[in-house]
Amino acid sequence: MFANKRIKALTFILILATFIALVAMDFVSVIGNRTLVYGSTGQDVKTLQSKLKGLGFHKGKADGVYGWETLRSVKWFQDQFGLKNDGVVGASTWAALNKAKPGVITAQKGGNTATSSNDVAILAKMISGEARGEPYIGQVAVGAVIMNRVKDSKFPNTVYGVCFQPGAFDAVRDGQYFNPPSASSLKAARSAITGYDPTYGALYYWNPVTATSKWIWSRRIMLRLGKHVFGI
User: Would you say 202 and 141 are in contact if contact means Cβ atoms under 8 Å apart?
Assistant: First the structure.
């Protein structure tokens, strides 16, 4: 009899401990103690996705998997709130998420200088030189990479500065940049400048057939559009 009571007591304690642990894990997810990055999974990722969705930044499912769509949503949110848009959901991003209210979204921009007609012209000429013959979405993607660099602290913070960073683009080196831009590249430039980013935040692109740099191949590939692959 005593043994049975002891077994029942131990069973109850184990069940209670398991319940407390599950509640604690869910609480951690809600308050955002864990730093989330691309590839993270779990209830806290689902919480992140739900928060972003409620604020209008995330259009995908809240499935608990930190994939490309979530990365894009996080970087967009971080950009809107003046945070480092690196896709890492740490203490500052969690804090901003918990304070944010619906209706805060403004048009995505690539910095204070990324809205002038001169920037559109520069971006269009670069797209035309780098992505001539590519499908339209591939042209926008090249422009989006440039705009992502404008917003990233590792690169110059203007369209001109990014495009003319020494050694950055073949179109400047071989002179194709200086040719008149195509109509489609102008349209693509406007789309990229106003926030359309089919690359999910990529900072690099290259032709996998011709690229020989070991460094560029060390970048994480996010997707392929036309003849280019895009990575971070």
Answer: yes
